[in-house]
Amino acid sequence: MGSDNGSPAEAQPAAGANGTTANGTTTNGHANGRTRKTETRESVTIRFAGDSGDGMQLAGTRFTDTSALMGNDIATFPDFPAEIRAPAGTLAGVSGFQVHFSSNEIHTPGDDLDTLVVMNAAALKTNIKDLQPGGILVVNTDGFETSDLKKAAYKVSPLEDGSLKGYRVIRVSVAKLTIEAVKDCGLTPREQDRCKNFFALGLVYWMFERPLEATLRWIKDKFGKKPETLSVLKANTQALKAGYNYGETVEILPVQYLVAKAQISPGTYRKITGNDAAVLGFTAAGQLAKKTIVYAGYPITPASAILEGLTEMRRFGVKTFQAEDEIAAAGVAMGASYGGAIGITGTSGPGICLKSEAINLAVMTELPLVIVNVQRGGPSTGLPTKTEQSDLLQAMFGRNGDSPVAIVAAQSPVDCFDMAIEAVRIATRFMCPVFYMSDGYIANGSEPWKMPNVADLKSIEIAHPTGPNSEGSDLTHETPPGEVPAKFLPYKRDEYLSRPWAVPGTAGLEHRIGGIEKQDITGNINYEPANHEHMTHTRWKKIENIAETIPELEVTGDADAELLLVGWGGTYGSITTAVQRAQRKGLKVAQVHFRYLNPMPKNTEAVLKRFKKILVPELNTGQLCWLLRAKYLVPAEGLNKVQGKPFLVSEIEAAIEKALGLSPVT
Amino acid sequence: MATTSLPLTTKELTTDQEVRWCPGCGDYSILAQMKTALTTVGVPREKLAFVSGIGCSSRFPYYMNTFGFHTIHGRAPTFATGLRLANPDLQVWVVTGDGDGLSIGGNHLVHALRRNVDIKVLLFNNEIYGLTKGQYSPASRMGTPSKTSPGGSFETPVRPLSLALAAEATFVARTVDVDVQHLRATLQKAAAHKGSAFVEIYQNCVIFNDDVYKYATDKAVKADNLLYLEHGKPMIFGKDKNKGIRLNGLKPEVVTIGKDCQVDDLLTHDEKSDDATLAYLLSRFAHDPRSANSFPEPVGVFRSVRKPTYEEQLDGRIKTATDKKGPGKIEDLFKAEDVWTVS
Questions:
Q1: Domain for residue B129, yes or no?
Q2: How far B21 CA sits from the closest chain A CA (Å)?
């Protein structure tokens, strides 16, 4: 469903009586017999924004968890600077966490904000443009001192100059109230100040009538285990409750907003980010293949969380390796694959540049290798913490020679689980490198994940040879049949042109491989012109054969539509929502989304040629569009954005209307 | 195919591939001694893997009838590391050269040794780029004329053993291509070492840097120019075995036994010392006829100490994690703390 905010429903009777909290618990301070108005909303989008040191990511994450536990559908968008701690209070140091929660199915973290919480002047300045007219603005007035205003380049306080009159401004002295709330906890003034995110969070919990239990439990788990953090446990608990009670006591809003449980399919859910889903996916792949996973990486934003997460998976037979550089990580992963484990190397775009030569060796030696690219803004160091989809052509072509690889791309945080398994399946079945593409947006963003039934996960079948695969009869013309005893031929291929995966340590299979061109079948070094041409085509054909084992493209929407939207990767949520909105307006639009980029599904050409107009929204200058045009000679047009940010739904909606020749959305 | 019978023979270890090194290349001797050494190492053929990078020496795996992986320039230690992680039953040898191992691959060499991954690194040092036809290498001694250093190179060369010791290598040795018995014995010692082993092999490039090690191979002079290291023995060398190494403060000096001192005054070699200072001191000895400060170049084992390998430590961590929560099952992946059920 769309992420529209529903119009406010009729005012409801007292919150204490209507029992709208998901788990039926009554939060403290709210059953005092007073009558309070509530309004039901379909969806709400909130952003917490403050200085990098203000704990906004934490506040947003806790709010998300609580909302997920209450049964809302959720989508999040953390947005933070590359600098760990830019100078406090400056525009460069602003960190934000956006959460969209809904009683309906949603696919994006929301375009416009219903509520914005700002902890200082800089956060107001950089975020206010996203708050919709009439939206709720919660301001920490303590973050608007003269020095704060100066750092945010305000000449006059925006709290005083009338510039915020289009919003419902709630002024709260968050810092001072927090200090008052935690003064008996034995913290230093600096430590006291750091509790203010919990005060703000408590306040927002009151505004949306959310229970505090999950957050209180989290605080206890985090700070309740060591004696030296017990004071922090106490202070954060008190700050959270104080924020909630403050909202209650002063009735900062005339109404509380309720967002009911979403009607989503039955099952057990958890909230998950794309990188966490990848961690589970790769671990599951090892289990499904009954294989050791060797994941080698070098820390890089935004891929490090996968290396960190897999390191926690040792008891599942996962071995992680923090390499000295990106090249070494690729080498270690490939060495592991050669050794019979599943080698995976993970990075972001700049790391891929460094791994190119090693990836090409996997192409040449036909060994399984999964290469994780959690894309970020480029070129070069680019925008380390911002999202982009501009490495598709790098994955496709970024190596010397004719060098085909398989490419899969996750389309949402949850899909990272499935595509991680798919990458391993393809790499091991086809003995080839497989790019697993994700991006900063889905890697860090989160949504509810309906956890799979183990019985529904297909095992990954891997058969290693145990002895000779030839009596000498299928050698090349150079070696007369019958004159060679039974031996192992490392490049003798199966029906998909995949070669055997011989594990060192197996007697009788001793053989040599390397980056020099191989004679087909024997694997011996060979420089003959005809052999090189044969091998070049064979490597391509093998990758093309993957199409026999992947699902076809599914067209959603109107079969007779004039316009087809084509996407890949993390833009799925925005495109899907835009298409749904267009359809609700009566526009004839269809959609396909690529999760397999090389090879493309078998029906790709047939699907593309059914539609008169093709629009390809991408967070790059048109890379998939370029591939489609080159490969299928179709009149695809791009909708391109390269701002380090995901598409707003409204941007795609506008492009749909334009493509259909309608007047632009106002 | 019954290939597990031991001992191995050199014939079993020979492939059907034509060896393509230049006639007279030092690599032939190393290949022959490697095979001979492996006949007594006691590891079956299928448990042996040779991993190489790029360069003349890196063709080595094609000529060994074991598992072999000819990888990319400089990166062989990384592939070997991954191979060990996946398959800890294998004895893994890395064959590299001074360009592959010290220039493009210097970083990986340092880190593989530092981690004490159980791999045996053989660095064929001919002090020149051979496969690219004669450019100076990072190991070329000062003044080496080459196609890219026509007036003689003016870069300070890397001393491979100093680098290996600085990288905390647990086994460090040097030998010479044509000194076949010493070469074979050194390879066998490297094979027996648990952890990273680093062996520098003086290897003559007959085409582009011929006779660079003449001082160490010519029978007439080599006894005066090489110091054969033996654990627990005083450092004595010379044609007449009358010269030795004595420490004067922090400075080593060449002395004549009976004239300058007695045998008891000489440095005693200790390859087992946990402290690598002596090994490092020895790694600085350089033959330099133009200098008054010329020393005999030590050959043999500089350092051989047992420390936990990377693999042993990783396995330990895996065991700890498994002991704590039990072996991971796929069902466990779908148990999270904060879950909710929609019915």
A1: yes
A2: 15
**Looking at CA atoms only, how far is residue B120 from chain A in angstroms?**
15
Q: Is residue B259 part of a domain?
A: no
CATH, residue A611: 3.40.50.920
pLDDT digit string, tens, across residues B216-265: 999 999 999 999 999 999 999 999 999 999 999 999 999 999 999 999 99
Residues A415 and A395 in one domain: yes
What are the Cα distances from residue A509, in Å, to A231, A291, A464, B41, B64?
Answer: 63, 20, 11, 21, 13
Q: Are A415 and A272 in contact (CB under 8 A)?
A: no
Judged on CB neighbours under 10 Å (0-12, 13-18, 19+), A554 is exposed
Distance from CA of A451 to the nearest CA of B (A): 6
Please report the ipTM that was assigned to this predicted complex: 0.97
Assess whether A117 and A230 both reside in one domain. Answer: yes
In a domain, B32, yes or no: yes
The mean of the pLDDT values for chain A is 91
d(CA A13, CA A18): 7
DSSP, residue by residue, B261-293: B-GGGSPBP-TT-SS-HHHHHHHT----TTSTT
Does one domain contain both A76 and A155? yes
| Structural domain containing residue A311 | 270-456
> Given an 8 Å threshold on Cβ–Cβ distance, is A315 in contact with B327?
yes
**B60 within domain boundaries:** yes
Q: Are B318 and A319 in contact (CB under 8 A)?
A: yes
First to last CA, chain B: 58
CB contact under 8 A, A335 and B325: no
Q: What single-letter amino acid sits at A647?
A: F
Number of domains in chain A: 4
Most A-contacting residue of B87, B114, B116, B319 (CB-CB within 10 A), to test interface:
B87
Q: Are B96 and B53 in contact (CB under 8 A)?
A: yes
For residue B54, give the chain A residue with the closest CA. A515
Look at A510 and B65 and tell me if their CB atoms are within 8 Å: yes
Question: B36 lies in which domain range?
Answer: 26-222+275-311
Query: To which residue do tokens 């996916």 refer?
Result: A281
Q: How many CB atoms lie within 10 A of CB B85?
A: 26
Number of domains in chain B: 1
Q: Which residues of A touch B86 (CB under 8 A)?
A: 292, 294, 335-341, 343
- Whichever domain contains A320, its CATH number is 3.40.50.970
Q: pLDDT, tens digit, for every residue of A420-474? A: 999 999 999 999 999 999 999 999 999 999 999 999 999 999 999 999 998 755 5
CB contact under 8 A, B342 and A332: no
Q: Nearest CA to CA, how far is A469 from chain B (Å)? A: 12
What CATH number did the domain enclosing B70 receive? 3.40.50.970
Q: In this structure, what CATH number is given to the domain that contains residue A67?
A: 3.40.920.10
Considering only CA atoms, give the Rg of chain B: 23
Do both A637 and A576 map to the same domain? yes
CB atoms within 10 A of CB A289: 19
What pLDDT digit, counting tens, does each position of A232-275 carry?
999 999 999 999 999 999 888 888 999 999 888 899 999 999 99
Q: Which of B12, B75, B315 to mutate to test the interface with A (most CBs of A within 10 A)?
A: B75
* Chain B residues with beta carbon closer than 8 angstroms to that of A265: 342
Give domain status of residue A7, yes or no.
Answer: no
Using CA coordinates, name the residue in chain A closest to B340.
A269
Closest-CA distance, A291 to chain B, in angstroms, reads 10
Does the residue A240 lie in any domain?
A: yes
Assess whether A104 and A159 both reside in one domain: yes
Residue of A nearest to B49 (CA): A504
DSSP A150-210: HHTT-SS-TTTSSTTTTSEEEEE-HHHHHHHHTGGG---HHHHHTTHHHHHHHHHHHHTT-
- The reply to whether A451 and A470 lie within a common domain is no
